[in-house]
Amino acid sequence: MPGLRTLTIELGRSERPNEPYAFDGRPQQYFARGAKGKLGAALLAWDKVETLRSEFLRPDPSSSVRRQMGDLLRRFLEDVLKELEGWEAYENALLEAEETHTPRRLLFRFSAGELFSLPWSLTSLSHGGRSLGTIAPHPLQFEWAHNTLTPPASHRHGRVLFAWSDAEGDVEEDRHLSAIQKACPDFNQDQDALKDVTLDSLRSRLKKARQEGKPFRILHILCHGGPVPGGTFGLSWKDPHRPSRPTRIDGDSLRDVLGPYHRDLQAIVLSACHGGNPGQVGSMFGGVAHDLHRLGIPAVIASQMPLSINGSVQMTGAFYQALCGQNVPIYEAFQKAHEVLSASSLDWASLQFFAQSPPEARARGQRIVFSPDTPLPELPEELVVAYEVNFNVAHASIIEALKGEAGEDPDVVVLQPFDKVRDDLPATSREWRRALDQADQLVDALGTHVSKVHLFGRAPLPLMFHLGWRLSRWKLSVYQEQRGRTGVWTCGYDSMQQPSSEEKFFREEAWPAPEAGRASGGRLAMTLEVNLSIHSEELARWLGTEAPPALVRLVAARGPSPTVLRGPLDTAHAVEEFRTCLERIRAEWPDVQEVWLALACPASLAAALGRVYNPKTHPTFKLFNFRRSEGYVEVPWSGCVTRKAGRRS
């Protein structure tokens, strides 16, 4: 840690980690990511936070509440970092930097929206009890833990657009304008100031500046801010249709207007109360600053709590004096602005700096949600994939299960075809096709550099079978969560594991005579019953009573049970016997055209069995998915998709 200019604390929620706003106000377990993939974990007592939080909606929370919040945050950081570097190491490094006048930042990188709502500047230091945000120069900056690579903010300040509205009272825009004009000689009030800003006038001004070849690089918005319906916060502007009445502008609306111009803008300054407040419990869908930060704006400055007018004026003057007059980078200009804020208010604790780390500074170990429209980054030779359809796979569980197999701190490519997880997905033929298509698109995107895939799957068995089939040209390890959704995963299949000559894994519960195959019109039904048996009632419901197909039943020889599949060796036996069974079907029943497949087995085995299927030599497979409410239902899968070239195990 000594010598690092940027210290990073990356925190995420252990449950539903890829749903940034899935927060209900109850105590939550969080993980911290350390070097070489090591993880720490701790519980944050949100019930205690909520008893204090309402005070911070006021300009002057009591000193007692401030101290309680600061101590609570310090204890949480001590707990979550205990197994890593330890909070004391961060604190010592920051205090040493202050004493030696060495530039050093503390970057909080969060993947859970609720963490942005906490006043981290008030964190009590164990040395002397002062607040973290009083360290000079101000070290804190914040970042969403996403995978958008954004060019860093330019060191040159560029053209400034000052937009303001007094829809809910005086904002003393003349003092702000005077401060900007004094610091930035190139600022032209006639062209670079926008009175009574609206969404339409803002878009028009940005468009005109770009057309003239002089785009704005910094957008400074001055107005009041406050709650909007639904529990989030927005900016107060005049209603263009009823100018005498204010309207609240939320982050979504502003992001839509700024989206086409986000590559022009280097920074946005929100001089407004609660511009950086992500919302109330149960309604945390992102504040204005968070929406702009996630849009890809390199730097966003906003106030998490109420911001005084004097503080806003002081910040504006010092910020532009440093940026335009001294030509320092934007973050250093923010630090200069922070230094002049009065200690008699909480403006110093409220102002936040949201930054985008340059690509070379991004740590590995990211969750990269696959999208067919977005190219994947350069992939490693051993790729980790989490297939999330019905449940999430916790990142910490993946790292623990891999035991360093895919490198020290691997990225995880998340295949989540519905942008959400739910137990009843897919529910329609259209959703099944979407899931199958997206799995195909992921495999097609792997290229030739990837030689092995580590797969963690929480998806229906037909989807696991399909993905295993598509990955049949790659080395593959498939991990299985232990019974009871414990979050503990172990390797259930390894394509490099060879079967031995031990006892058979399956017994043939049913094997029809050759004439039965001919009598059933070239159709054959096959069950693989491993972790549970398929009852006769379900079989009858599936196969029907009128001219049912012939039936082959492969049942675990030791009896179906949740523990009968003990690991990769058992899976290798099962896969080899499934392969032998298909060869026997081809030899004994050459007239069979279709095989109906019903699986009652772990997901890892379903993926492994998919690697056996060859549409060029085997009858066409039809896959069936089981749900208690509907029995076995056919999945819209033809089994005839042409595979792409790749690496063979």
TrEMBL record:
InterPro entries: CHAT_dom (IPR024983), SAVED (IPR040836). Residues 99-350 form the CHAT domain. Residues 440-633 form the SMODS-associated and fused to various effectors domain. It comes from the Bacteria. Residues 238-253 have a biased composition (Basic and acidic residues). Residues 234-253 are annotated as: Disordered. It holds the Pfam family CHAT. This is High-affnity carbon uptake protein Hat/HatR. It comes from Hyalangium minutum.
